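quick one, 190 residues, struct below
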Amino acid sequence: MIKPYLNFIKRQRGYTLVELLVAIIILISLGSIIANITTSLLRSSNKTNNIENIRRNGNYALSQMSKTIGYAKSFGGFSHDSSPNAYITSCPIPSAKRMYEYVKVVPFNSSEVVYNCVSPSTFTVNGTSVVDTNSVSMTQCQISCTQANASDVPIIGISFTLVPRSQTGLAETSNSIKFETSIVMRNYVK
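---
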């Protein structure tokens, strides 16, 4: 009675080579599927974080510029360069949406503020960036002026595009977002 039992144990000691190969193939397949899913999730999370960072920087810059320009005590003008005599205080009539690089205003609570979009990497105010230059940079920037006739208040248009600073070429880091606004000065006096 013991002898057949020992023969049964001897036959059931290990796995065959085919069984081991099938198990390894299944484990490798499951591992690669899990790795692909994890990589995809991390990339989409990174893309979402980059887009949110760009939006936060762009919206902050727009709100600061809109508030400063819209409620300024006086309007210093537009210019294509930073020399003090180059600023014009009203849009040329007839206005066909002229483009500028500088806009100057004087807020109630501080000295003169000059918004500059000549800098290739960011929008600056008196030399200080309005966005986090470590995480985003600017690819395009325009300041425009529209005015239907000489008695109208000029409408200042600001447009810029932000991209993430670390351009690795991956899809999740190659996003760009365009920001635009139009500002009417509330205290504009000719």
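Helices lie at 2-11, 17-70.
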